[in-house]
Amino acid sequence: MELKEYPDAEMMMMDLADLLASELRSCLARHDHASLAVPGGTTPGPIFDSLCATRLDWDRVHVMLTDERWVPESSDRSNTRLIRQRLLTDRAAAAVYVPLYLPGDAPEDRLAELEESLKPELPLSILLLGMGADMHTASIFPGADRLDEALHGDALLVPMRAPGAPEPRITLSAKVLRDAMSTHVVITGTEKREALERARHLTPDEAPIAAVLRNAIVHWAES
Ligand SMILES: O=C(O)[C@H](O)[C@@H](O)[C@H](O)[C@H](O)COP(=O)(O)O
Fold first, then answer.
1. Which residues contact 72 (CB under 8 A, 6 or more apart)?
2. 125 within ligand 1 shell (Cβ under 6 A)
3. Glucosamine/galactosamine-6-phosphate isomerase domain location, by residue (predicted)?
4. How many domains does the chain have?
């Protein structure tokens, strides 16, 4: 794992947007398309605000989420809604969106279709992850009902229910996350920095973020 510390979060978000753009450009120079997976939650919005205005061949970029809360897009808990509003806009409106949610009562109802549309995107070219103070990443939560399958199984996508998550989730599995060509984790604040340090000495079953740290660059700013 490599840790990059920044003087402040604003600078970190701008730098990360530039870094993701340059990785996308170099991937597009070698392949006909690039796949970019991004988290939802509260941290990455400013990265999206900057990245969406970047000049690149967005129509060859396939964008998806690392995980989704199983709520309709009209909900303000929807990560799809977040990236439609803040990433798939401006120049990036030309990107191809690969969904991680389809209307249905439960993630299990639409799992097969979602997996089919994900398959051609793998391995992911560029993966950006968030992390919770409980050391979850994507929606792979400690104590989740299908944690073992998400960490150690062959599935690409796993439905999840966890004490720390108010609604059912769907998440890329650790296998998909680990196979990404380039992995960045973005975190802010002292609590998450301490959680990261703890995770480095724990197993993925205790600290799911540990499953992806080996090849990741972690970007951190205090605030
Ligand atoms: O849907 C989600 O919640 C995310 O994709 C999740 O994995 C997120 O990255 C972490 O929970 C951190 O969330 P914050 O950035 O809100 O702290």
1. 78, 103
2. no
3. 7-216
4. 1
